[in-house]
Amino acid sequence: MVYDFFKRLLDTILSIVLIIIFLPVIIIAAIAIKLDSLGPIFADTPQRVGRYGRLFRMYKFRSMVQNAHEILLNDPEFKKLHEEYKKGGYKLKEDPRITNIGRIIRKYSIDEIPQFINVLRGEMSIVGPRAYYPDELRDQQKEYPSTRESVKIVLSVKPGITGVWQVTGRSEINFDKRIQLDASYASKRSILYDLWIIIQTPFAMLSGKGAM
User: Fold this and answer.
1) The domain containing residue 19 runs over which residues?
2) What does the DSSP assignment read for 84-147?
3) Which residues contact 48 (CB under 8 A, 6 or more apart)?
4) DSSP code at position 171
């Protein structure tokens, strides 16, 4: 498909260029993360669901304490937070696991920069739907049964670093509305549409409205 060829070409060129441009930010962020808290530079997060349901490891700068996901799932002190996490569409407004540096890099989406590695590996695209967790898709489809067809459409394309709901500042909407936006993108995607989203992304990052 012509679109897929040019999208892959655009993904590869942009990823290489942006990694070079963001290199000073990458170095500063890595040093700040190591100085701020114990743990690795990259987040040790569960695998995400990619195109056709294939699982992959998403690279992100660590913005939380070490083993944050395991703590949320297994620590009795975080039981209420875990329930809030599931009810809130797998997002938390106030998360005590986030480090001081983590709050800054998340606000401006700096933690997302390592995902260019995923793009170069062919697991993600610059533009695409959100990369969902397996349990997130399973649980949310139970809560919103009407979204099952939209999920199938979303999984027919690669997930993206940025997308429609990020640049429109709608990251706080519920799963059913979010998956509809992602499915809408997957159905009408084009190079021009991708370029529009890419152009909007820096403004979303600077304003903090595109933060995940």
Assistant:
1) 2-207
2) HHHHTTS--SS-TTB-HHHHHHHHTTGGGTTHHHHHHTTS-EEE-S----HHHHHHHHHH-GGG
3) 55, 56, 57, 58, 131, 132, 133, 134, 159
4) T
Angle between helices 134-143 and 175-188 (to 10 degrees): 110
- Whether residue 161 contacts residue 120, with contact meaning beta carbons closer than 8 Å, is answered with no
| Residues 83-142: tens digit of each pLDDT | 666 665 556 667 788 899 999 998 888 999 999 999 999 999 999 999 999 988 999 999
Residues 6+ apart with CB under 8 A from 42: 59, 60, 61, 62, 114
Nearest partner of 63 among 23, 113, 22, judged by Cα: 113
Burial 106-124 (b: 16+ CB within 10 A, else e): bbbbbbbbbbbbbbeeebb
The residue whose two tokens read 């083993």 is 67
Output the pTM of the full model. Answer: 0.85
Within a domain: 74: yes
In angstroms, rounded to a whole number, what is the distance separating the alpha carbons of residues 165 and 81? Answer: 25
Residues 50-85 have pLDDT tens digits of: 999 999 999 999 998 887 777 777 777 667 776 666
What's the structural domain count of the chain? 1
Are 73 and 45 within 8 A, CB to CB?
no
Cβ atoms within 10 Å, residue 41: 16
Q: Is residue 161, in this structure, part of any structural domain at all?
A: yes
